[in-house]
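Operator note (shift B, R.M.): manual run for Peptidoglycan DD-metalloendopeptidase family protein requested after the automated queue skipped it. Running by hand, logging everything below so the morning shift can see what happened. Input copied straight from the record, untouched. If output looks odd, do not overwrite the archive copy; leave it for review.
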Amino acid sequence: MRKICVLLAAALCLNASTGEKIKNQTTYLESSKELEKQLNKKLDDLAGDILGGEKSVKQTDDKMKELIMQIAQLENSAKSASGELDELVKQNKDLTQSQKDIQKSIVHIISDEFSFDLIMPKEYEEGVDSIIATEILSKLNSVLKDDFNELAKQYESTQNLIKTQNDKIDGIKSNLKTFKFKQAELVSLQDKQMKTLANLKRDKEIYQKQLSRLQAQQDEIRKTLEELKIVAKRESEEAKKALAAQKAAEAKAQKNKKDKKGEVAASASEGDVKQFGSSYQTSLVKKYSGEKTIAPLDGFTVKQKFGNYVDPIYNIKIFNESVVLSANSADAKVKSVFNGKVVFAKETAMLDKVVIIENPNGIHTIYAHLSQIAPTVKVGAKVQKGYVIGRVQRDLTFEVTQKNYHIDPLELISLK
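Run finished. Output pasted below as returned.
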């Protein structure tokens, strides 16, 4: 009878534990769905921002193409105007030389006429030849003066054209300077837009990875829930069998009225079961009341603490059931913080290599994201406090539970 009662109590206890696990996993699954919803919304917002950013980049690119065309046209105009200016300068130079030649001719004629008047004999002054010579010199002087005046007009006209052409070139250069400045501004703007777009795409990739990881966690949780439901069903059937066996034994005891002590023991066992069941608390977190123990790493900093915190990237409230300890050196040794028995030691999809050790007083210590597991650390192996169970590249995820409760690991270990 005592054995049957003990089996019944154990079955009920296990069933309660499995039920609590199912409840915890279901709650976590619901919270992860809410997180998934928030991540999807952020992804939608990012997609809109990326489309807007790509549109802005295209608009800026179109403006740049238009400016480049305008700059090319202005450069062609400047080149053409510069060629015209060179031609005008050459013409002006030729006109100036012609003016100088005419001036020399006029001076020469005037000096010749004056010399002729001085040396001409008196009797020649009144002769026919004298009159003809004087008339020729006069006409020649008049022609040269007309040529000179015409050249002077051409020179002035050319000078005006040169000034106009210079003004035109100055205007083109000014426009070129303005357009090139605008082009530089657009290039700077496009660079900023491209960087913003790259950041948005990077954020989108981060959120997508986070979402994929979350969905993978959900798949693991669903799988665990299915397994727990199977276990719960089996435990329930075992509890029913144990209860049926107890009732059969009690009926037999009532009929025989022989084993009163067995009945008292059964009654006491039922009381134990009720007391054990009622000892569960609604809270999943409890304070650690034992003595401090060693840390799993020799030198480390606390990278992530236990409890509620707001994710700085996603701005989402999250409850950490573990702590992340960052080793001071790479490939650091990870040690067991208590004596205990290894109940889990293998690689997982989300937490890399994981070791779980069952310790005294219903405590379990979980060491996750290990890079190596020691060859001697296998399920069923007993380890002593301080035993090296593996190595971690840098960040160790350390979690502590006591029955169905989570304990802040930093309450457990000594911080140097």
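Quick read of the result: The chain is about 65% helix and 15% strand. The radius of gyration is 52 Å.
Leaving this for review. - R.M.
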